[in-house]
Amino acid sequence: MKRGTVGMVEALFSGSVRRQAGGRLTIATPGPGFTEFTDAVAAFVRDSDVSDGIVTVFCRHTSASLTIQENADPDVQADLMTALDGFAPRHAAYVHGAEGPDDMPAHIRTMVTDATLSIPVVDGRLALGTWQGVYLIEHRDRAHRREIVLVVVGT
User: Fold this and answer.
1) 27 forms bridges with which residues in the sheet?
2) CATH fold label, 19-154
3) Which Pfam families would you find in this protein's record (predicted)?
């Protein structure tokens, strides 16, 4: 951090009460695909009493990932899964295969998507666009329980 940056941050929050909250979610996935959990993140932010700030959403797995994506038309998710299947096919000649043919493609898909999301919080609400939702993407072939860590910081 550059010298003086901390002072700017303190000035930004001067006169305001700084708040921070942390939590965890467990998301059950049915197998490969998108599981939306926007409402759970929004509820966490609402319960935190942070009015303006940022929420960080972190997936604690290397074979599942996070994304912000359209939540209006499920065809978008189907097409995205088709694209990921083409990018990292399940039965390619991977060296790593200790956990089955879906393991290495899952790691590749996680690498090109996200393990962490940062979402602005404005007036106590997620500052998402009209058609945006927060999703966990399951990259493995069977159902899993995935742990998500949440931290919100702000005023």
Assistant:
1) 146
2) Jelly Rolls (2.60.120)
3) YjbQ
* Rounded CA separation 44/71 (Å): 20
pLDDT score for 97: 87
pLDDT value of residue 92: 92
Q: Are 51 and 155 in contact (CB under 8 A)?
A: yes
Task: Give the single-character DSSP code of 66.
Answer: E
Encoded amino acid at 16, one letter = S
Quote the pTM value. 0.88
What secondary structure letter does DSSP report for 73?
-
Distance CA 102, CA 128 (A): 32
Q: Which residues of the chain are modeled with pLDDT < 70?
A: 1-15
Give the pLDDT of residue 8: 44
Where are the chain's structural domains?
Answer: 19-154
